[in-house]
Design goal:
Elements: H1 4-10, E1 23-24, E2 31-32, E3 38-40, E4 46-48, H2 49-55, E5 60-62, E6 69-71, E7 76-77
Antiparallel strand pairs: 1-2, 3-4, 3-7, 5-6
Length: about 80
Amino acid sequence: MCNEPFKTLAEQLPAAQRSQSSLVCRLSGLPMNEDNPPLVLPSGNVYSRDALLALAADGVLRDPQTQEVVRVDQLRKAFFM
């Protein structure tokens, strides 16, 4: 973190390099990447696109953790830097 207010907060966090890390979907166990991007539900939970679309019926699905009913158009792309 380069911004001063966040620099002290991030001092104790481990640094990760993209070549050494990957995101894995908690539902499917498959990697989340450009072919299967991570999507964010309104609750803040993140799952892979393929796993969420597999749960969707008629454009609606239930958040696996909160059981909240969510429309597919409410899902947002997640970006990690």
